[in-house]
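Subject: Predicted fold for Protein translocase subunit SecE, 66 residues

User T.R. writes:
Posting the sequence so we have a shared reference for the thread.
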Amino acid sequence: MSMASAFQKIKDYFHGAISELKKVTWPTRKQVINYSIMVIAMSIGIAIFFGVLDYIFNLGLGALLS
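User M.O. replies:
I've generated the structure tokens; pasting them so everyone works from the same file.
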């Protein structure tokens, strides 16, 4: 493979990638903010759930071992 051929393939790759990115429907700023808030809220909710579950199992295990 010649050097010119390699550069042509790289150029074609980036041209194709840019072409595909122009077809993407990007979310609006409001959607990004709403989705981010939902992800953060769900993460906190799941962390609290597992924290409570861990605490309950810890109490149960402590009762079994004592």
